[in-house]
Amino acid sequence: MLNLENVRKTYGSLVAVDDLSFTVKDGKIFGLLGENGAGKTTTFRMIMGLLEPDKGTITLDGKKIDYKETDKIGFVTEERSLLTKLTVYEMIEFYGTLKGMNKEKIDKKLDYWLDRFEIKDYKFKKIKELSKGNQQKIQFISAVINEPKLLILDEPFTGLDPINVGLLKDAVKDLQKNGCSIIFSSHQMEYIEDFCEELIILVHGKAVINGNLNEIKENYAKKNILIKGDNIPVEKLEKINGVEEVEEKANEYVVHIKDASVSKEVFDVIKNFNITKYVVADASLNEIFIHYVGGKNE
């Protein structure tokens, strides 16, 4: 279990992380969100033991993170950190050796992951000869080769097509099932909604949202009404007090309302039309993120 308690980090007069606290339990995936410059990278570096917090504590299974504990942490960075002149085998052997693994185990685990990611023929190819998507797979393998206790994923699906995203998603969920604690960071909110039960949104290093994703969405007042049907009276809907926007999508309308009480009046306007879908839904995480972050990063 990873635990951060009242962590603060400054660079001169700049407060990068401000009184940050959260816990990632074993077998849980935790979302750490924020715009560029919000303090995510500094937080990752402190968790990795690369930076010391000015205040507060960071522990993994109750122990302060030092060089011994960092062997239990895997990190997939947004920027690739691959040794491109080496072959896949040489690079993974290097990373595995740094983590205290013997060559026999490294080779066995590498074969497993290459087969799982459908790139087993690339074992002795140089990293620079691989596509960006396959390089991302190798970066993932380098982070999990030693079965880490904690895995940090920073934009892990960069450069991957939908099929390969699916392969990595399945791998992440299997690591979770085996008890790995995972911190997941992405600007693609649909991935956060797929994976995370708990999350934090940072603005200027401070948590403006912290808690269970379902509760965050339920407690956020604004809702969306999804409507399908013939001849929807858009102009009448837009005039309803409490309707903020009527958005036309490919095959439905999304009516953005200030709170759930407005849904009855919306329904009264359309109930005599040929309606095939009427759903009152929580706002998306993307909308909530924009609400709390938009305009605050200047």
Q: Could you characterize the architecture of this molecule?
A:
By secondary structure, the protein is α/β, with parallel strands linked by helices. It folds into two domains: 2-216, 3-Layer(aba) Sandwich (Rossmann fold), CATH 3.40.50; 221-282, Alpha-Beta Plaits, CATH 3.30.70.980. Helix content is 34%, strand content 30%. It has eleven helices and 14 strands. The chain has helices at residues 40-47, 67-70, 88-98, 103-116, 132-144, 162-177, 189-195, 213-219, 234-238, 263-270, 285-293; strands at residues 2-11, 14-24, 29-34, 55-60, 63-64, 73-76, 150-154, 181-185, 198-203, 206-212, 223-229, 243-248, 253-257, 275-282. The strands form three sheets. The chain has a six-stranded mixed sheet with strand order 6-7-8-3-9-10. A hairpin with a 2-residue loop joins strand 4 and strand 5. Helix 3 (88-98) packs across helix 4 (103-116) and helix 3 packs parallel to helix 5 (132-144). The longest helix is centred in the middle third of the chain and has 16 residues, at 162-177. The chain is globular and about 70 Å long. The model has no long low-confidence stretch (mean pLDDT 94).
Give a brief description.
The chain is an alpha/beta fold and 298 residues long.
Radius of gyration: 23 Å
Please, what is the CATH homologous superfamily of the largest domain? P-loop containing nucleotide triphosphate hydrolases
CATH level-two architecture of the largest domain: 3-Layer(aba) Sandwich
> What general form does the structure show?
globular
Biggest sheet statistics: 6 strands, mixed
Q: SSE order in H/E notation?
A: EEEHEEHEHHHEHEHEEHEHEEHEH
